[in-house]
Design a protein that fits this description.
The protein has 311 residues and is α+β, with helices and mostly antiparallel strands. It has helices spanning 2-9, 49-54, 99-102, 172-177, 197-201, 299-309, and strands spanning 11-12, 36-37, 56-57, 88-92, 103-110, 113-122, 129-132, 138-139, 142-143, 145-151, 163-170, 185-189, 205-206, 215-220, 233-238, 240-241, 249-252, 263-269, 274-280, 284-285, 291-294. 13% of the residues lie in helices and 31% in strands.
Amino acid sequence: MRRHRFAASVLTAVGALLAGALSAGAAPPPSPTPASFAPEQAAKGFWTAERMRNATPLDVIRATPGSFRAPASPAVEETVVRPTAFPQAGGPWTGGGSVVKTSGRVFFTFQGRTASCSGNSVTSTNGSTVMTAGHCVKYQGSWHTNWVFVPGYDNGQAPYGQWSATKTLATDQWAASEDINYDVGAAVVAPLNGKTLSQTVGAQGLKFNGGYNKAMYAFGFPAAAPYDGSKLIHCSGNSSKDFLFSKDHSLGCNMTGGSSGGPWFESFNESTGTGLQVSVNSFGYTFLPNRMFGPYFGPEAKAVYDKAQAS
């Protein structure tokens, strides 16, 4: 427990708090809380293009207030990513394929503020399951409300619609104590226009207990500088295991706040844009820029996925 508390004090979650709006606070209460929540349905017309563009990326558990610095990277406008670029430290995805439809931005209300993360449509029994980070559904003891998933988000536009959550879930470990090792969440979304999410945009497969040190592709919609949340960004490279304070995967990547919850794929096919999801963007260390960490999809992640797809 002491190790986990120390780790939390030095982590910069790329998706945990409103950037610049809140300073590091006290640790969440240790008392267990339910691992799922039925959020209020998003009010019709609430998530306008302007409101989506202005949603603040969740991004800081800071060692000290003001210690977060966005990783240095080239200007987004000057970065042209070719699909065959591997490794890739971060830039717009130009390869097309299924990932441009299954991945999207997540929007919700947190402590009265509009905020954003990322997520991905996955194969499921109900055809309506989105995987994301735990802190993208619950943070500081509170479940987010007004939660929607916007697959294929394009600079304020929702080409495949806005999908409202009927239930959001997190691993038991995240729900109880917000343990960074288990920063995995999911959402079940309501049908839209008579169709399920997977019928509309497709879905990516998942893999659990797949081990470490794999070639990975990470995707998300970072909205903190130098990015602006307007487009799908990706990183790729050979991953490793965090040798510091967590059990997470580690990948060279300059994505920033708002990318949290975006999918990590193993066995990713650049031509088809498909792969097996094995993690999500979760956090970065303040003292180790340009590196992203994602939770290991073990039995805990599978349990929350199974609960979601059975809902």
